[in-house]
Design goal:
Blueprint: H1 7-17, H2 19-24, H3 31-54, H4 60-68, H5 71-93, H6 104-119, H7 123-149, H8 166-172, H9 193-214, H10 216-221, H11 225-230, H12 243-272, H13 282-296, H14 302-333
């Protein structure tokens, strides 16, 4: 039986995956609503983490079966199908990492091939790769943000935008819930305060720097404002074209997110089938299905993408954990 991933690997994987919504969605939104969404997501994970520790730090598929009995298998199947859809949509959207390249259509296929290759070796291998990528991504993100600070116009940093932005931002920042489906080595259950702080503040940093440099009007009109911002940045007059660096970092974040969705989808399918371990062929099969689905299906509309994320990354994990926690409390009282 393959060893489970560690706490550090789990958190690093989530950090790498969060680069996608931070650079694409949050950079296009008003910083005050991004900050509010990050705070709400951090509060949600404080509750979920505490419940997860009380539930014995088990993977979500096992908790769903324990909480909902036979109905849990149906819920897990629905969650797996949603995750498969999200994986296909993520692969399709990965072309945004290279907006000026004609080979953008190949981005999704290459991404799924990489996920399939790493998936054949199990969760631990993908988690180790994410743990290696995370510090590199953190350094480059920090460098880009610090470089952009010198061009920030404080007048453009005033609050703007409508509250409705929260409907898209909050579900997107719940994507670390996908990691709850994967087995992890139990530990003392300490809250990951550094990761929670990063979740609350880092997306807002992308938002305030982007709008502060480009203006809120240009941010709303541009499909990829952070990429546009990179065109005007230089590092010590030595590296004057940072777009390739932004593209590389964003694509690596897409890989971390896609690998997380691949392994989560496989784990959810195994939970629905009452299997403890995923066979080696399951992750490649998930990627093949996502590739086929991405070719024949249209991009997910925003309301469906946000609604599915809210249900399967928000409501479903919280409900399963609450039911298991209540059952355990009743057993202790007896």
């Amino acid at each position: 039986m393959e060893a489970d991933m560690t706490r550090r690997q789990q958190l690093a994987w989530c950090f790498g995956a969060l680069g996608v919504p931070a650079m694409l969605l949050c950079a296009s939104a008003a910083w005050q609503w991004v900050l509010a969404a990050g705070a709400l997501a951090a509060l949600y994970y404080i509750i979920v983490w505490q419940l997860w520790v009380r539930a014995g730090q088990k993977p979500l598929p096992a908790l769903a079966c324990e909480a909902f009995g036979g109905a849990g298998r149906g819920i897990l199947t629905a969650a797996a199908l949603w995750t498969l859809t999200a994986l296909a949509d993520t692969a399709r959207r990965s072309a945004a990492a290279f907006p000026e390249s004609r080979e953008g259509l190949l981005c999704g296929a290459v991404l799924l091939i990489l996920c399939a290759a790493s998936g054949t070796r199990g969760v631990r291998t993908s988690a180790r790769a994410a743990a290696v990528l995370a510090p590199v991504l953190a350094v480059i993100h920090a460098m880009l943000l610090l470089t952009a600070l010198g061009q920030v116009n404080l007048q453009w940093c005033a609050p703007w935008g409508e509250t409705s932005q929260l409907y898209a931002l909050v579900p997107a920042l719940l994507l670390p819930s996908a990691a709850l489906s994967l087995p992890r080595t139990p530990d003392g259950g300490r809250l990951p305060w550094m990761m929670l702080g990063t979740l609350a503040l880092a997306p807002a940093a992308f938002a305030v720097v982007t709008s502060g440099c480009l203006s809120p009007q240009l941010v709303q009109a541009d499909a990829l404002p952070f990429y546009t911002l990179a065109k005007s940045l230089s590092i010590l007059s030595v590296m004057e074209r940072l777009e390739p660096l932004v593209s590389a970092v964003l694509y690596l974040s897409f890989f971390a997110l896609s690998a997380l969705l691949t392994q989560s989808c496989a784990a959810l399918f195994c939970g629905a089938l009452r299997r403890d371990d995923a066979p080696r062929w399951l992750a490649p099969a998930v990627c093949a299905l996502a590739l086929a689905f991405g070719w024949v299906a249209c991009p997910l509309p925003g309301w469906l993408s946000g609604g599915g994320a809210a249900v399967f990354w928000g409501v479903f994990p919280l409900a399963a954990l609450l039911v298991v926690a209540v059952k355990k409390d009743r057993k202790k009282q007896k």
